[in-house]
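Homework-ish question, so no full write-ups if that breaks the rules, but can someone show me the predicted structure for this set?
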Amino acid sequence: RKEVEQDPGPFNVPEGATVAFNCTYSNSASQSFFWYRQDCRKEPKLLMSVYSSGNEDGRFTAQLNRASQYISLLIRDSKLSDSATYLCVVNTLYGNKLVFGAGTILRVKS
Amino acid sequence: NAGVTQTPKFQVLKTGQSMTLQCAQDMNHNSMYWYRQDPGMGLRLIYYSASEGTTDKGEVPNGYNVSRLNKREFSLRLESAAPSQTSVYFCASSEASGLRTNEKLFFGSGTQLSVL
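A: Not a homework solution, just the prediction itself:
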């Protein structure tokens, strides 16, 4: 089983739609969780960290479910510019080791 | 702000050739990393350096060597390139050091490497 698993998509949604991605992780000792965004042929960039209590940044909401070992990303009012690959990233406490999911492709269409 | 700069952006090698990918960061970060990204797979850690003078293997270190030349620079060397090393390579850095949980990673723009 992969350490971090994501639905590869693509998720094709119209502008203005709400879309959600989940990401499951296998290591119950994982301590830190992140969502990165990667545009086509570009480097990944941090979108947001995921906190235990859940957190929101504008149209983006991230949630963590430790019991079921998954994190989620909700995007409201999708924009064309949200089209990208969203990478789930998980870290354990020791070893400076980040594990990346393969990513979920989002395509927002007009 | 330059951030993380890696060179070259593109490279084509023949099997058996060697090359070094260069990476430099100007953010005074402690930790630096080399990842490779292949289609359908997440970024995989090749090597990392938690501080100047230290390097450690990541998930896929075979066929690679690294040098943390100083706090700013972290290079990745392919001694004898193989077609399986065709990939996109990303250098990254973060403030994290020692056993601290990783903080935000800053990535370079990537190197697309093809080994024929």
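Now go work out the reasoning yourself. Hint: Chain B touches chain A at residues 31, 35, 40-45, 48, 50, 58, 90, 96, 99-102, 104-105, 107-110 (CB under 8 Å).
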